[in-house]
């Protein structure tokens, strides 16, 4: 099971394996408080895509398309992340305020998919 959660929310035992899927460490949160098991920078959107998106809901549909394209170029990274998630509870953490329009929301169905490209999600 893969869950989504803001990094600023308190850690919980229900989170299971905690993965941060942001390229940058979130402002104002210590590594101790974050209690992250894995910081998966490589699977996060590129700096260019992150800057372009700027967490604007109006850019969401195009962000999803562009992020999928970036992930398609990283099949080994996606496969490794799927292995990290297999058979356990995982919580993908993100720093964005928007709980709907963020990279973790795009990544979750890809990681849950059995299709290497994530197209069956």
Tell me what you see in this structure.
With 121 residues, the chain is an alpha/beta fold. It has one domain. Helices cover 37% and strands 13% of the residues. It is built from 5 helices and 4 strands; from the N terminus they run E-E-H-E-H-H-H-E-H. A 4-stranded parallel β-sheet has the order 1-4-2-3, covered by helices on one side. The longest helix is centred in the middle third of the chain and has 13 residues, at 60-72. The mean pLDDT is 91.
What key attributes describe this structure?
single chain, about 120 residues, alpha/beta, four-stranded parallel sheet, 4 strands, about 35% helix, globular, YeaO-like, DUF488 domain-containing protein
> Radius of gyration, Cα only, in angstroms?
13 Å
Briefly note the structural class of the backbone: alpha/beta
Count of alpha/pi helices: 5
List the helices and strands in order.
EEHEHHHEH
Task: Give the CA-CA distance, first to last residue.
Answer: 14 Å
Read across the widest sheet, the strand sequence of neighbours is 1-4-2-3
Low-confidence stretches: none
| Portion in beta strands | 5-15%
Look at the structure and give the mean pLDDT: 91
Give the strand tally. Answer: 4
Q: What's the helical proportion of residues?
A: 25-40%
Shape: globular
Count of spatially separate domains? 1
Organism: Kaistia terrae
Protein name: DUF488 domain-containing protein
InterPro entries: YeaO-like (IPR052552)
Pfam families: DUF488-N3i (PF22752)
């Amino acid at each position: 099971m893969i869950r989504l959660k803001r990094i600023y929310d308190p850690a919980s035992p229900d989170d299971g394996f905690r993965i941060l899927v942001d390229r940058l460490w979130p402002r104002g949160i210590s590594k101790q408080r974050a209690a992250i098991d894995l910081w998966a920078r490589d699977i996060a959107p590129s700096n260019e895509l992150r800057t372009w998106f700027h967490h604007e809901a109006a850019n969401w549909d195009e962000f999803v398309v562009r992020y999928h394209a970036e992930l398609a170029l990283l099949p080994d990274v996606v496969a490794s992340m799927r292995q990290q998630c297999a058979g356990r509870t995982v919580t993908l953490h993100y720093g964005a305020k928007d709980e709907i329009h963020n990279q973790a929301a795009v990544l979750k169905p890809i990681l849950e998919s059995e299709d290497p490209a994530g197209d069956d999600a």
